[in-house]
Amino acid sequence: MQDLEGKVAVVTGAGSGIGEGIARAAAASGMKVVVADIDLAKAQAVASSLGEQAMACRVDVSSLTSVEAMRDAALERFGSVHLLCNNAGVWIGAMMHDADIKDWQYLINVNLYGVIHGVKAFLPLLVEQGEGHIVNTASMGGLISGPPEGLYTTTKFAVVGLSEALVMEVADKGVGVSVLCPGLVNTNLITQSFAVRPDELDSGIDHQQPAPDVANGISPLVVGEQVMDAVRDGSFYVITHDEYRDIIAMRHDGILDALDAHAKRYGSTSGRVL
Ligand SMILES: NC(=O)c1ccc[n+]([C@@H]2O[C@H](COP(=O)([O-])OP(=O)(O)OC[C@H]3O[C@@H](n4cnc5c(N)ncnc54)[C@H](O)[C@@H]3O)[C@@H](O)[C@H]2O)c1
């Protein structure tokens, strides 16, 4: 989607961090922006700093009803939507052996269902207008995994998988898809994930340590600009950090080695139908 001037972006989790960076970059590209967040005060602060071209909206992405209400509010104010950034997300650094089921539910509800609800509520609209773009925020933790990130990477691998299928599904429908996989970004992720956690999904376990050192991460504004470049170019993977190359290669080599070992031991299956 090359010409962004006057078009409409909806960004979830835009009251802080990467979402705020995307919202600011979208506004700088001439887009009207719905700054959506579960923390309305933060969304309002960002929206008011962007002026008339932005509106604040409270949304809880773990609720389909709430995401549909956000879509309807965006349509009522701006008349259409062209770019949806399913960015809201939360983090818990739990080890799986002592994680509570509520820890799993919290991360899956926000990080995975949040993206699913965005796709469910907005995709028919974008397909019908034959123009649009969806950006799903995953993580470098959607490409590589390791403790104590097991719960988090479960949700982020799912977002990558969803996005890989989606980009193929809508390729001929005028709708682009990108998946954002950042390394460390300097945001409020660690503190805000605990501040907005609903009481009914509070396991009472303090999973804040050891937390990733996000304060040493790159600027969310830089990430926002890279996301807008991807929307313009139609790039699928948005990889903001290159220092994970060796670990990603190691993971992929392990899979290819297993394929070779299988073929050597049991013979090739190529030519057979799945
Ligand atoms: N910061 C990093 O290093 C990093 C790295 C990779 C991926 N990410 C991902 O980036 C995304 C944005 O996180 P961030 O780092 O900017 O953190 P952040 O906490 O600064 O911003 C996330 C925003 O999402 C909002 N939010 C949380 N739950 C919500 C819900 N249920 N509904 C609507 N809004 C909700 C929060 O209030 C917050 O304003 C997340 O998906 C996160 O997993 C972050």
Explain what the structure shows:
This protein has 274 residues and is of the alpha/beta class. 47% of the residues lie in helices and 12% in strands. The chain is built from eight helices and seven strands. A seven-stranded parallel beta sheet has the order 3-2-1-4-5-6-7, with helices on both faces. α1 links the parallel β1 and β2. It is globular and about 65 Å long. The site of nicotinamide-adenine-dinucleotide (NAD) has 34 residues, from α1 and α6. Nicotinamide-adenine-dinucleotide (NAD) binds next to α1 and α6.
Keywords:
binds nicotinamide-adenine-dinucleotide; Rossmann fold; seven-stranded parallel beta sheet; globular; alpha/beta; 274 residues
What is the C-level CATH assignment?
A: Alpha Beta
Number of domains: 1
Determine the fraction of residues in helical runs and give it as a percent range: 40-55%
Anisotropy-based shape: globular
Poorly predicted parts: none
Order of helices and strands: EHEHEHEHEHEHHEH
Strand content: 5-15%
Strand order of the largest sheet: 3-2-1-4-5-6-7
Secondary-structure content class: alpha/beta
**CATH topology (fold) name:** Rossmann fold
- Report on the biggest sheet: 7 strands, parallel
N-C termini distance: 36 Å
Whole-angstrom Rg? 19 Å
